[in-house]
Amino acid sequence: METQTKQRNSFTGSIGFVLAAAGSAVGLGNIWRFPYLAAKDGGGLFLVVYLALALTFGFALLITEVAIGRKTQESPLTAYSKISKKWGFLGIFSFVVPFIIYPYYCVIGGWVMKYMFSYLAFQGQVAVADGFFTGFITSQWQPIFYTVLFAVLCFIIVYKGVEHGIEKYSKILMPILVVIVIFIAIYSLFISHTDEAGVTRTGLQGAAVYFIPNFEGLTFKGFLTVCLDAMGQLFYSLSIAMGIMIAYGSYMKKDVNLGKSVNQIEIFDTGIALLAGMMIIPAVFAFSGKEGMSAGPGLMFITLPKVFNSLGKFGEFIGLIFFVMVMFAALTSAVSILEAITSSMMDKFKWSRKKSTLVMAASTFVVSIIVCLGYNVFYFDLKLPNGSVGQILDILDYASNNVLMPIIGLLTCILIGWVAKPKTTIDEITLNGEKFGRKTLYVVMIKFVAPILLFIILLKGIGIL
C-alpha cells in the first residue's frame, strides 16, 4: 500500500485537500440554486433545515466517500470493489454520473464565460436586452466556441496533475472567490431601489426575508417540501454521489486528520452558500420584490444582469466581478468532475494521466457539442417524470441528479452500513488515533436515517412523491 501511495499523486497537505474539495463543492449549485431555493422555501426556515441536515445527513455521506477513497487509494470506478468485490457495480454508477454531468457543466461554464467577456468588454447593457440569453444559447456556433474555451481550461489543470494542477490552482482561485463573494454580499445589503409604483425596497429588507424564518401558511406538506429541497441541495453543495470525494480522498495522505478536514469542507461550503444568498437575494428583492426570486436558473443569466444594469456605471464593475467569481466557482467544480473520470481511467486501465485526460476530455467534449446543439439543431421538448419539460441538457441533469445520485447514495449507505459495516470507514477516520466526536451520530445516520431520506429523495426525483 505504501508503494502505491508514493506512485499515486497526492495533495501536499490538509490545506490543499480542503481547498480542492471545497472548490469542487462551491460550484454553480451554490451560486444560483441555493439562493433560489432559500427564497422559495421561506428564507430562514430553509436555512435552519439545511444547516441541520448538513451537520447530520450531509456530513455522514461526505465523510463516508472521503474515507472510502483514502482507505482504498482508488478512484470511484475501482474503489467500491476494494470494499466488497460483489459491489464493484456501484463503481460503474459512480463513474457514469460525473461522465454525464461534465459535458453539460462545460456548456454552462461556457455561458458564464460569455457573460464575463461581455462585462469585460463594457457590454453589460447588451447582456440585459430581452432575448439576449435565449438568442445566445440558440445560436449554433457561439455556445460551442465558449464551451471549447472553458473545456480547454479544465483540461490544462487536470492534465497537470494533482499537486501542480488541481491543488495549485485551487489555492489561487478559492481565496479570490471568497473575497469577491464577501465584497458583493456586503454591497448588496446597501442597495435601495424605488419602482414605478413609488415603492422603495432595500437590500437590508431582502436580507431579512433571507434570514428570518417565515412560518406563514406553513403546512406539513410544505415543510416536507422544504426538507426535500434542502436534502437535494446537499448533493449539489457537497459534491456527494459524484465520485469526486472518493477520488480526492484517494489523494489524501494517511497522516492528515480526515475528520477535521471534512469538517472544514462543510464549514467552507456552507459559508459560501450562505454568502451566495446574501449576494443575490437582497439585490434581487430590492429591485423586484419576492416575485423576482422565482426565476430559478434564469436568476443568474437574466434577472441579475438587469440588477447590475440599473446600478449605472458601477453596476458594470459589479457585474464583471460577479461573473468572474461565478467563472472561478464553475471552473473549480468542473475540474473536480473531470478528475473523477480521469482518475478512474488511470486506476482501471493503468493509463498515464496524459492519456486518461486526453481520452476523457475528448469523449466528453463530443457530448458537450450535442448538448449545445440541443438548443438549435437537435431541439425538442420532452416532459420528464418530475413534471418539468426539457432538452438534452435537462435530460442529462435529470438522469444524474434525480435518479443516479440518490441511487448511489442509497447503495453506498447499505454497503457501509450493513455489508462492510461502519467500522470499515470509522477505522480509516480514526487511523492516527484521532477522536471521532460524531461517531454514534454517524453510525445511526449511515445505517438508518440516511438510507430512508435517500429513498424519499429518489421517489421525489422519479415523480412518485
Automatic annotation (TrEMBL):
> Which GO cellular component terms, listed alphabetically, does the Swiss-Prot or TrEMBL entry include?
membrane
Q: Does the keyword Transit peptide apply?
A: no
Localization in the cell: Membrane
Topological relation to the membrane, as annotated:
Multi-pass membrane protein
Task: List where the protein spans the membrane.
Answer: 12-32, 44-68, 89-113, 143-160, 172-191, 234-251, 272-289, 317-338, 358-378, 398-420, 441-462
Has keyword Electron transport? no
Q: Which Pfam families match?
A: SNF (PF00209)
The alphabetized UniProt keywords are: Membrane, Transmembrane, Transmembrane helix, Transport
Write the protein's name.
Neurotransmitter:Na+ symporter, NSS family
Origin species:
Treponema bryantii
